[in-house]
Amino acid sequence: MLSQYKFAWPKTSRRAVPTLYQQLAHLLAKQIEGGQALPGQPLPSELHLQQTYGVARGTVRMVMRELRERGLVVTVHARGTFVAEHG
Q1: What is the model's pLDDT at position 36?
Q2: What's the CA gap between 50 and 61, in Å, rounded?
Q3: Model confidence, pTM
Q4: Cα–Cα distance between 66 and 73 in angstroms, integer?
Q5: pLDDT of residue 38
Q6: Beta partners for 82?
Q7: What is the pLDDT of residue 18?
Q8: What is the full DSSP assignment across the chain?
Q9: What is the pLDDT of residues 18-60, one digit of tens each?
């Protein structure tokens, strides 16, 4: 569950509590940016993320879309989602 993680959110946020997708996107982005997930390394499957963090499939898909838009991951059809090469 995401409730076990502590997040530092900007004071300017209008929402007192970030949505589940924002929390999971933040967590995965920090892992990627922090080097815990290396370029080319596969991310866990949608099902694994759903079960690990107790979120719905739609939530996981929103997270993956955001990470792709930020250039942190790439998705290859029928293969999975991988940490993007940097630079």
Answers
A1: 93
A2: 10
A3: 0.79
A4: 9
A5: 92
A6: 42, 74
A7: 87
A8: -GGGS-----TT-S-SS--HHHHHHHHHHHHHHTTSS-TTPBPPPHHHHHHHHT--HHHHHHHHHHHHHTTSEEEETTTEEEEPPP-
A9: 899 999 999 999 999 999 999 999 999 999 999 999 999 999 9
Q: Cα–Cα distance between 33 and 2 in angstroms, integer? A: 19
CA distance 46 to 60: 6
The length of the chain in residues reads 87
Residues 6+ apart with CB under 8 A from 13: none
The answer to whether 67 and 25 have CB atoms below 8 angstroms apart is yes
Predicted confidence at residue 12, as pLDDT, reads: 53
CA dist 33 and 77 (Å) reads 24
